[in-house]
Design a protein that fits this description.
Elements (H helix, E strand, L loop, with lengths): L1 H9 L4 E6 L5 H13 L2 E6 L19 H10 L4 E3 L3 H4 L18 H4 L3 H16 L3 E5 L3 H13 L5 E5 L19 H6 L2 H14 L5 H12 L5 E9 L14 E9 L2 E9 L2
Helix pairs in contact: 6-7, 9-10
The structure holds pantoate.
Length: 272
Amino acid sequence: MSLLVKGIKRRGKSIGFVPTMGCLHEGHLSLIRRARKENDVVIVSIFVNPIQFGPREDYKRYPRNLTGDIKLVKSSGGNIIFNPTVKSMYPKSFSTSVRVRGLTELLCGISRPGHFEGVTTVCTKLFNIVRPDVAYFGQKDYQQAAIIKRMAEDLNMGFKIKVLPIVREPSGLAMSSRNKYLFNKKRKEASIIYRTLKEAKRLIKSGEKNTARVKECIKDSLLKNPYIKIDYIAVVDPQTLMEQKRIASTVVIAIAVWMGGVRLIDNILVSV
Ligand code: PAF
């Protein structure tokens, strides 16, 4: 990959980079298409990164579909797929880790300790290998994108990071490779998450400033479904991700729930 990247750089071509863990869906494809429009060459990495999964998480059963992914990358305008092995990314001697303080200790960082350190470490490696001009991430993983932006700025990585809107299934469920774990009925029922986010947005837009009340409405709505277990409901500042007691400016409402053993996250930006 390094030689390939060197050649592209030597020819003065720009590189758009879409890092993924494969099992691609419309959310990823929207990033690839945007990268295609904005760059000379589009590199897509497909790597299920073991160090971002906790010991009781789904690393082994995480959906993989390399043959299908290759077709989708090509048809959406990707030029190069980087699909390294675990051994090549983490040889026995591997001893380095990249940690962003603060932002990683909130929201998903609480129930997934070590997750974001795994993400920032692998992304640093991928960025160093691919040397992108622009890297593309989805807003569905809002916290991940905020952490990566922080890291890129703190470490003077020198390329742009673009965060593109959430792509949803027709039901409203945010697209995710993990939606594959949800069988038909649950998949339909999971649309309650987005419906609830939209209701909460309406409530804020109609003048509700009290975060506790907004969160109470979200909780009541979600718990109407007996299969949902709430991990967190948060109303946070879009940059610092700190909880807002009163809603005085733009906020992100972020939700993480368990549904039938599957962890689902979603969020919505609300400007006031
Ligand atoms: O969002 C993902 O798919 C992963 O966290 C990423 C950014 C590819 C790192 O493994």
